[in-house]
Specification:
With 169 residues, this protein is α/β, with parallel strands linked by helices. The chain has helices at residues 2-21, 32-42, 59-66, 79-88, 121-124, 127-135; strands at residues 49-53, 71-76, 96-100, 114-117, 144-148, 159-161, 164-168. It has one domain (2-168): Rossmann fold, CATH 3.40.50.150. It contains six helices and seven strands, in the order H-H-E-H-E-H-E-E-H-H-E-E-E. Helix 2 (32-42) crosses helix 3 (59-66). Bound molecules: S-adenosylmethionine (SAM). The site of S-adenosylmethionine has 24 residues, from helix 1, helix 3 and strand 2.
């Protein structure tokens, strides 16, 4: 019994904790109601390619695809969450990709139009530079960025809804 409890405990710590070890947010999914607000705020539709930087269990990717986004791409450092989110998104297989690893090392799809972030301020602070580095390869001139829970330091947002803010880059 004790062994099972220890295994379950370790699994929970592993699922929640990996993001924190690398200095990002721990795993906490955006609640369903707020995912709808996020899609509304960014006005996600059929022309959009939505990227979730730290995609957790795929909750935002599902919301994007249910809002008719063309594609949804997730980057997640925690392999357990990658496996789980791929399972959750199996019905959308043709329209979604979930990559394992640190998103700061990723090259975003060139047709990205919307980025979602539920991250800590320390991570958000690095986002303007990260987007600048990708800029030359991005087709869209106006990237919409939705942040949940915290604001991007030093950057003015366009609109707010619930605990989310919308930025344009
Ligand atoms: C607060 S959760 C948000 C999950 C999901 N985006 C949502 O809103 O439901 C943050 C996630 O980002 C992941 N994460 C943190 N830093 C990361 C990084 N640098 N690269 C990839 N994933 C990261 C964590 O493992 C965690 O699953």
């Amino acid at each position: 019994m004790t062994t099972i409890a220890i295994i379950i405990g370790c699994a929970i710590v592993a699922v929640i904790g990996i993001g924190v070890i690398i200095g990002g947010a721990p795993f906490v999914p955006t609640r369903k109601k707020w995912t709808v607000d996020a899609m509304k705020l960014a006005n996600v539709g059929a022309d959009d390619v939505v990227v979730d930087l730290g995609s957790g269990d795929g909750t935002i990717l599902i919301a994007a695809l249910e809002s008719n986004a063309k594609r949804a791409i997730g980057y997640e450092i925690n392999p357990l969450l990658v496996v789980w989110s791929r399972l959750r998104l199996r019905q959308f297989k043709k329209r979604t990709t979930i990559k394992t690893g640190n998103f700061f090392r990723a090259k975003l799809p060139t047709d990205t139009t919307v980025i979602y972030l539920f991250q800590v301020e320390k991570v958000l602070r690095k986002i303007p530079k990260f987007i600048d580095q990708q800029r030359a390869d991005l087709k869209t001139k106006k990237l919409r960025v939705v942040c949940f829970g915290a604001e991007i330091p030093g950057k003015k947002f366009l609109r707010e809804l619930g605990g989310m803010s919308l930025y344009e880059f």
